[in-house]
């Protein structure tokens, strides 16, 4: 119980888009009411449980996203743009996206669970880092699914504006179609322009932005 005598509010936070070449990094914060999570009906008598979005099919992710809003006590999405990633680096961009999500929740969580070993939030949030939390915590799994579905929708919308880059299929990650389009047409306004992929594009490498090293850790945070 919390000091106020109520149930402790636990927010699971997960992000998507960290390794993409284009598009924002998106974070979701999700708070459960501690009731059993929803399950999907599979083939026959098989059921599909809520887990890390990467372990679910696109159809199952979208189906879970439709029912999670009715199960969760609250959830919110936050994002950092490619411009912010270029200016401040990925670690700070992740922090800003997660803080935006947490601050948009209808309730203030007592504890935040992050997937992985690295606490990119820190104070004033009480943070607990757990490796594979998206497979062990239903609140983090819910955040994982909602963040993924939200970002995939954003990138699919860009596909019509910038056809040929395969954004609807790759979500801005370096697929062969995406890489070929970059070589031919160059980066779009939604690409991360401080990243090293531009070093391998002779026609476009002059567009690369060189971030102030004091502004953040940048792409080094991906290693």
Strand and helix map with partners:
Elements: E1 10-16, E2 25-31, E3 40-41, E4 47-48, H1 58-71, E5 74-80, H2 82-88, H3 90-103, E6 111-115, E7 127-130, H4 133-136, H5 138-161, H6 167-170, H7 176-185
Helix pairs in contact: 1-5, 2-3
- The CATH class of the domain at 10-161 is identified as Alpha Beta
Q: Looking across the biggest beta sheet, what order are the strands in?
A: 5-2-1-6-7
Overall, the morphology is globular
- Helices and strands, in N-to-C order? EEEEHEHHEEHHHH
CATH architecture of the domain at 10-161: 2-Layer Sandwich
What would you report as the Rg, rounded to the nearest angstrom?
Answer: 18 Å
The CATH homologous superfamily of the domain at 10-161? Ribonuclease H-like superfamily/Ribonuclease H
User: What name does CATH use for the topology of the domain at 10-161?
Assistant: Nucleotidyltransferase, domain 5
Strand content: 15-25%
